[in-house]
Write a structure and sequence with these properties.
Blueprint lengths: L17 H9 L5 E5 L4 E4 L11 E9 L9 E12 L2 E7 L2 H24 L15
Antiparallel strand pairs: 1-2, 2-3, 3-4, 4-5
Helix pairs in contact: 1-2
């Protein structure tokens, strides 16, 4: 209603966001279960390595905390599911170097995409009132 002010930040995660695009590019090997631009989250479905002899699956969650390309602007969480039998599974959040490696790969790819966007959209600057000399 009139007089209420919106508290908190509003982030627009459109397809032009380099971190968003980099994350989707790097996670294209796995099915996605939840992708929410406005909420700034990507959650994969459970996936496993076909060469694994143990019944283990991973699920990745990428949370965007900012729309800027910064290390503190993204969080990667990994959950591991281990099943002894079909309906006897244990799910745990795991702390491993893999989450950090994924985060770093996303940041690197986002920086490259951002630089490509700058190069593609670069417009030469012309000072107003200054005429170009023709040789």
């Amino acid at each position: 209603m009139g007089g209420k002010k919106n508290k908190g930040g509003t982030f627009e995660f459109a397809s032009s966001n380099a971190m968003w695009r980099a994350s989707l590019d790097l996670l294209d090997f796995t099915p996605l279960s939840n992708v929410d631009y406005s909420g700034g989250i990507i959650i994969t479905d459970w996936f496993s390595d076909e060469n694994s002899s143990i019944d283990e699956s991973l699920k990745l969650t990428v949370k965007f905390l900012s729309n800027e390309i910064r290390a503190d602007g993204i969080n990667v969480v990994i959950h591991k599911k281990t099943c002894e039998e079909k309906n006897k599974c244990i799910i745990k959040k795991i702390d491993s170097t893999l989450a950090g490696e994924i985060k770093l790969a996303i940041l690197k790819e986002a920086a490259l995409l951002s630089q490509q966007d700058i190069e593609t959209n670069k417009v030469p600057y012309e000072m107003p009132g200054v005429f170009k000399r023709e040789n």
